[in-house]
Amino acid sequence: MGKMIYLDNAATTQTRPEVVEAMLPYFYENYGNPSSVYEIATRSRKAVTEARDIIAKTIGCENNEIYFTAGGSESDNWAIKGVAEAYRDKGNHIITSKIEHHAVLHTCEYLEKLGFEVTYLDVDESGIVKLDQLKAAIRPTTILISIMYANNEIGAIQPVKEIGDIAKQHNILFHTDAVQAFGQLPIDVKELGIDMLSASGHKLNGPKGIGFLYIRNGLKVRSFVHGGAQERKRRAGTENVPGIVGFGKAVELAASNLKERTKKEIELRDYLIERVLKEVPYTRLNGHSKNRLPNNANLSFQFIEGESLLIMLDMQGIAASSGSACTSGSLDPSHVLLAIGLPHEIAHGSLRLTLSEDTTKEDIDFTIDQIKEIVDKLRQMSPLYEDFMKKLAKNRAE
Ligand SMILES: *Cc1c(COP(=O)(O)O)cnc(C)c1O
């Protein structure tokens, strides 16, 4: 078997060698605790500041508006629970969408148990939140709108600026989970009216277990981890210095070639989608054909199980996903695919392919050939397909 073809970059990405290189000194020579006073600690303190500066510049905020966390899930939890607690006097209503990551959905469900009220907005058939429904959902007690920047399964990019405007008009805070968008789309939090934004290192070729939450200055968001005075007393715990340094490096690299990289990915993505739709019958694209993340293709193949397809692709050295990593292992179809209106049986036959800048046309050609062969094989074994073909033949004969 040849090399592995990794097409699951929405689940996680390879850490760039430059990132690992940048991190290493902070395990060895510069291992000091940034809170200490001696010289060796000064070095790690300085490195944390530098990473914070890089990240702040990338999203157009002040460096003291960036708070390092242990990843996207923590940032989402903090943003939502932190606002819920701090603004409880003002109201108990939160608006989010049905296609959020579980880090947002399960946090909202948890808050419902504590007495908060949550509206889960529908999306249209391409996975976009409906703005009139958002406006209609606003109540005097609404304290937070949390809507993701771009979806991790179908790549749908939300109308973030419009949502930010609506939130501002109604004096409601706006949090966005930008874990997938950050590093793929240019983001300016001030221009977009974003009050809080979550991001994660390992989704853009940085290390795992490091993320940040942007909190606009002036917001009353409760501290999430209590303890020491780190992160301006809002997130205790000795800083993950190597992680922060690696994250900073990954962001710098991602920002330096964002345009060229994503242009190349879009071309390859569209080539992949076009060929599959043309060459594999009874197949559909999930999400919008243009308004989607540069690296995301999500397809449903009728009459087959996505899980079987995944296993057989894996045997050919191709790593892909049938839903989000968090839901595989469960038999329920993805909540995102159901939210865009797919019937269960079609949602079950779905495949998510997410590219990286290292993905080549050869990788994609090989993958398409394998998909064609495997889908055909699986359909030959499918009683549903057999019935369908019999009916089709009968209708044609009549
Ligand atoms: C991966 C992901 C998360 C979780 O981030 P972690 O750093 O793995 O905790 C949250 N939201 C979205 C949209 C994601 O894709």
Outline the structure in words:
The chain is an alpha/beta fold and 398 residues long. It folds into 2 domains: 148 residues, Alpha-Beta Complex (Aspartate Aminotransferase, domain 1), CATH 3.90.1150.10; 240 residues, Aspartate Aminotransferase, domain 2 (3-Layer(aba) Sandwich), CATH 3.40.640.10. The protein has 15 helices and 12 strands. A 7-stranded mixed β-sheet has the order 2-8-7-6-5-3-4, with helices on both faces. Strands 9-10-12 form a 3-stranded antiparallel β-sheet. It has a two-stranded parallel sheet with strand order 1-11. It starts with a strand and ends with a helix. The model has no long low-confidence stretch (mean pLDDT 95). The site of pyridoxal-5'-phosphate has 15 residues, from α3. Pyridoxal-5'-phosphate binds next to α3. It is an enzyme of class 2 (transferase). Keywords: 2Fe-2S, Cytoplasm, Iron, Iron-sulfur, Metal-binding, Pyridoxal phosphate, Transferase. It is found in: Cytoplasm.
Features:
398 residues; alpha/beta; Aspartate Aminotransferase, domain 1; 7-stranded mixed β-sheet; 3-stranded antiparallel β-sheet; binds pyridoxal-5'-phosphate; Cysteine desulfurase IscS; 2Fe-2S; pyridoxal phosphate binding; Aminotrans_V_PyrdxlP_BS
